Amino acid sequence: MAADPTTPAAPSAELDQELFWRLIEISTALSSERNTSRLFERILDAAQDITHADGGTLYLIKEREEGRPVLEFEILRNDSLGLSLGGTSGNRIELPPLPLYREDGTPNHSNIATHTALTRKMENIEDAYYAEHLDFSGTKAFDARSGYRSKSFLTVPLCNHADEIIGVLQLLNAKDPATGETIAFKKGLEPIAEALASSAAIALDNQILLQDHKDLLDAFIKVIAQAIDAKSAHTSAHCQRVPALTEMIAQAACETREGPLQDFDLDESDWYELHVASWMHDCGKLATPDSVLDKATKLHLMLDGIDAVKTRFSAAMAQLELKFLRQIAAQPEQAAALTAVLEQELQVLRNDCLFVEKANVGGEFMKPEDQARVRQIAEHRWVDHLGEVRPMLTEAEVKFLCIERGTLSFEERQKINDHMKVTVQMLESLPFPKNLKRVPEYAGGHHEKMDGTGFPRGLKREQMSWPARMMAIADIFEALTSSDRPYKAPMKISQSLSILQKMKQQNHIDPDLYELFVKSRVWEKYARVHLRPEQLDVEDASSYL
Question: Which of 48, 183, 201, 263 could make an SS bond with 53 (beta carbons 3.0 to 4.6 A apart)?
Answer without folding.
Answer: 48
